[in-house]
Amino acid sequence: MTCYPRDQARREVAFIAYHFHWPREELMSLSHLERRLWVTDISRINQEINEVGREASRAN
Nearest-CA neighbor of 27 among 11, 4, 41? Predict the structure, then answer.
C-alpha cells in the first residue's frame, strides 16, 4: 500500500479550509481524490475570477 505524503494532505486541507472555511475534521474525512477535486475546482474558480478582473482592468 502506498502512503499519501502528509505534507501534501496538509496543503490540500489548508487550501480548501482557507477558501471554504470547512472544519479540519470534515476535510480529513474526505478521500484524497475528493480533496484533489476540490483543490482543482477552487483553483479553476480563482483563475476565472482573476481573468475577469484583468479584463475589467484593461477596459478601464
Answer: 11
| CA 48, chain centre distance (Å) | 14
In angstroms and rounded to an integer, the radius of gyration of the C-alpha atoms of the chain is 15
More confident residue, 2 or 52: 52
What's the residue count for the chain?
60
Q: Is the predicted pLDDT of residue 22 greater than 60, yes or no?
A: yes
**SS3 letters across 16-57:** HHHHHCCCHHHHHHCCHHHHHHHHHHHHHHHHHHHHHHHHHH
pTM over the 0.85 mark:
no
